[in-house]
Write a structure and sequence with these properties.
single chain; mainly beta; seven-stranded antiparallel β-sheet; seven-stranded mixed β-sheet; 3 helices; globular
């Protein structure tokens, strides 16, 4: 684990939160993270949402401690840490995310020749503007109230009310199309989505479905047990065993 500093450059409005830019010689690769000292009692994980000429950017919600930094501030960090996404060689990449957990998947939008992105929000107003995404990316919005796109939740295959289409069957078709699937969802949904993927894909290869566990990881070395997550095959520590896990295979 490398102890060093990164420099905070600027904060740019990125509704509903902020895009923060940091100068860093060696930013984390997609799915890996830095543990930053932002003045609180515990370190906070920073996942790149984009890369810049001088470092990387992260997306944070309103009130996040990093959004209070002043330009030029040196931030004490450990890292890069953890296991990131393994997508080398994939020609067709499927990204699946709850809207609040989407940012760490954004660097993967150009990681394959063909990319599809399915985003779930509670309602239409929470979906990001379509213009934020590269035009070549196939977008599949999902809302839990049916106000836009497919009717959620993501994994549901129940019959939909008249005039609406469930997201589950469409997600199954995209899983069958993809060479690799990368997900960013709440840990309590891991098992249901693993079952849908297994139903849609015959004998998926190792690392076919990878999931990012975004949970508190204050120590970064697996000592505090705060970051334990339940996967379909047992419990693991996000900071040392992940935070990107093979969803289907231990």
């Amino acid at each position: 684990m490398k102890h060093h500093t990164i420099r905070f450059r600027a904060a740019i409005p990125h509704p509903p939160g902020w895009q923060l830019h940091f100068d860093a010689a060696h930013p984390p690769t997609p799915g890996r993270f830095l543990l930053a000292d932002l003045g609180g009692p515990l370190r906070v994980s920073l996942f790149p949402a984009a890369y810049t000429e001088t470092g990387f950017a992260v997306h944070v919600p309103p009130g996040h401690p990093a959004a209070q930094l002043l330009p030029g501030t040196q931030v004490d960090v450990f890292g890069p840490l953890g296991r990131g996404f393994r997508v080398a060689g994939a020609a067709r990449l499927l990204l699946v995310a709850e809207v609040s957990l989407l940012p760490p998947l954004l660097p993967l939008l150009d990681a394959a020749p063909e990319v599809a992105l399915m985003i779930e929000a509670t309602t239409r107003a929470q979906l990001p503007p379509l213009g934020r995404f590269p035009p070549e990316v196939e977008l599949y919005p999902v809302t839990r109230d049916g106000s836009s796109g497919y009717l959620g939740p993501l994994e549901s295959e129940r019959p939909a009310p008249a005039g609406l289409e469930r997201s589950g069957p469409r997600l199954g078709e995209l899983v069958a199309w993809a060479d690799r699937v990368c997900l960013a969802v709440s840990p309590d949904r891991f098992s249901a989505l693993a079952a849908l993927i297994r139903k849609s894909r015959f004998h998926p290869a190792r690392d076919f479905a990878q999931v990012l566990a975004q949970v508190p990881m204050p120590c970064g070395v697996g000592a505090c047990d705060v970051c334990r997550v339940s996967l379909p095959y047992g419990e693991r520590r996000a900071c040392t065993d992940g935070p990107v896990f093979d969803l289907l295979t231990p």
